[in-house]
Design goal:
With 205 residues, this protein is an all-alpha fold. Helix content is 78%, strand content 0%. The protein is elongated and about 60 Å long.
């Protein structure tokens, strides 16, 4: 029984290692050449895997791309959650650091940038699911920060949480295309702090 368990563990480890190596190569190629110009043949060649191995782990190129973008979102969530949980920061400082870090991380999420293009977004339904999940997650984090701010007297107690969170997310989403698709991120980067201060004044006590 012990020997059988060890064998299963080795198989599982090999499966995960192969899957991860494919994702790493796919991420690099999608980031450099884009979804449409990257082929499964090229991913298999660079990853040194049989093409059949790719389809064993991922049903299609779209499925593989979905996983790559999901990993970008997971990295974003991990970094932002660390900010939300940082007890050395005041609620106001958390908001500012959260928003600044969010901008910086997404500025380097090249595969996510491609999903912002209208001609891409219209053809891939999985993006709705990924974005909806991220939106719900971010609302939860904003709610935590706002409630902490209310408890500490930094944020107005009568604020409508749902409206406040929708406004924050609306502003964030509206600037993604000019920043990441129209290459204005570096131009406006020095002014992010001022923009965030303006947003925070709307809820500060």
């Amino acid at each position: 029984m012990y020997r059988k368990t060890k064998t299963v563990q080795r198989i599982n480890m090999g499966y995960e290692a192969t899957r991860e190596s494919i994702l790493v190569v796919a991420d690099r190629l999608f980031s450099r050449f884009g979804f449409h110009k990257t082929s499964m043949d090229e991913i298999a060649r660079i990853a040194r895997k049989a093409k059949g191995s790719l389809y064993y782990h991922f049903a299609s190129k779209e499925d593989l791309f979905r996983e790559v973008v999901s990993k970008e979102f997971d990295a974003l969530k991990e970094a932002l959650l660390a900010v939300v949980n940082d007890q050395s920061l005041t609620p106001g400082e958390k908001f500012k650091k959260y928003l600044l870090n969010r901008m910086e991380i997404l500025a380097n999420a090249k595969n996510y940038h491609e999903t912002l293009q209208a001609d891409f977004y219209e053809h891939f339904a999985f993006l709705d699911e990924l974005r909806s999940d991220l939106t719900l997650w971010e609302k939860e984090q904003f709610s935590r920060i706002i409630n902490e701010g209310i408890d500490k007297g930094e944020i107005l107690a009568g604020i409508n949480l749902e409206v406040a969170m929708d406004i924050f997310l609306l502003v964030l989403r509206s600037i993604e295309i000019p920043f990441f698709i129209q290459n204005k991120y570096e131009q406006y980067n020095p002014h992010f702090g001022q923009l965030i201060d303006i947003l925070l004044k709307g809820v500060a006590k």
